[in-house]
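User: Design a sequence. Structure:
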């Protein structure tokens, strides 16, 4: 079963095309990441799925339900933790959760159990009688996740769930979300933290200026990076030794040999043998790999044909 299916999805705000024809499929049970810089259209995409924003073109379905024609069915399948806090200020948080579950058709006694369970899962059960307003920033984030899970949704949508939180809380939230996914919940997560996508997601779509640039697994993306091997020798080099002509690129930098390759293991052995044959003494070897972050920045930069105006400037 397909959890999310969009075809040529479009959204314009006046002259601005926030989504320029996004086609994506997320399978049931997947942990899917929507990755992209600020303004890419991530929140707009999610807002259409949950019925907060009306699309201007294309199609969007959640578990086969059209998000506009079958709004109720589609919406009831989703638990959303939005990017911006939008919680009732006047009720204690446990009551907010009970109302939320009730609104999505859960009977009161079950709703109360679910509320307690969700608060325990995110670790703020002892704050159950407190109003949202009085929670600390970290507790607010925890509560947003509790509210998303209280209806026991088949699809959990998390819009930048760890933006601005400390490392400890980030890891706590990751663990909770991962466990839910392992228990069968489909997860759609947006983030601009590459590490988050790398750790959590089975697949990611990279969105840039309203267009999908790439859909891939984080591992596949990493595979596109290069390894750099840097070799220092007892006697600095002025030129790359002629015997180094394998399937890799070489140059000399500050007397050191720099080798770029897609296969560090094989290349390293070859290079060492060649240097040894020439009687050169190696004193140090350093290896580094392109990070997913660098690959990501490269992709969203290459996608840009025109110069982007920096945010806040005109
Ligand atoms: N309600 C709105 N009215 C006008 N423009 C909007 C509105 N919401 C978002 N946008 C614009 O649409 C683009 C995509 O925004 P958004 O979906 O929030 O991106 P992201 O979540 O990836 O940062 C941005 O250029 C943003 O300024
Ligand atoms: Mg956003």
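Assistant: Done.
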């Amino acid at each position: 079963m397909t959890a999310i299916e969009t075809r040529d999805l479009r959204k314009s705000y006046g002259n601005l095309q926030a989504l320029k024809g996004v086609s994506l499929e997320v399978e049931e049970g997947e942990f899917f990441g929507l990755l992209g810089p600020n303004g890419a259209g991530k929140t707009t995409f999610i807002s259409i799925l949950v019925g907060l924003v009306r699309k201007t073109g294309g199609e969007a379905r959640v578990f086969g339900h059209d998000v506009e024609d079958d709004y109720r069915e589609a919406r009831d399948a989703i638990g959303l933790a939005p990017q911006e806090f939008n919680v009732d200020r006047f009720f204690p948080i446990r009551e907010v959760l009970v109302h939320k579950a009730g609104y999505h058709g859960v009977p009161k006694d079950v709703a109360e159990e679910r509320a307690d369970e969700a608060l325990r899962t995110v670790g703020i059960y002892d704050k159950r009688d407190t109003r949202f307003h009085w929670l600390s920033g970290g507790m607010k984030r925890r509560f947003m996740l509790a509210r998303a899970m209280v209806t026991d949704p088949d699809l959990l949508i998390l819009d930048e769930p760890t933006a601005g939180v400390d490392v400890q809380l980030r890891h706590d939230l990751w663990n909770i979300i991962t466990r839910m996914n392992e228990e069968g919940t489909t997860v759609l997560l947006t983030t601009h933290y590459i590490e988050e996508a790398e750790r959590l997601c089975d697949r990611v779509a990279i969105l840039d200026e309203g267009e999908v640039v790439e859909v891939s697994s984080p591992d596949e993306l990493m595979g596109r990076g290069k390894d750099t091997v840097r070799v220092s020798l007892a006697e600095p080099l002025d030129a790359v030794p002629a015997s180094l002509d394998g399937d890799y690129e070489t140059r000399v930098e500050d007397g050191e040999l720099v080798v770029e390759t897609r296969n560090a293991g094989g290349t390293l052995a070859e290079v060492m043998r060649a240097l040894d044959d020439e009687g050169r003494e190696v004193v140090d070897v350093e290896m580094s790999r392109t990070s997913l972050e660098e690959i990501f920045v490269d992709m969203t930069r290459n996608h840009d044909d025109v110069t982007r105006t920096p945010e806040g400037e005109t």
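The pocket of adenosine-5'-diphosphate (ligand 1) is lined by residues 13, 16, 18, 36, 38-44 (CB under 6 Å). Confidence is low (pLDDT under 50) at residues 305-314.
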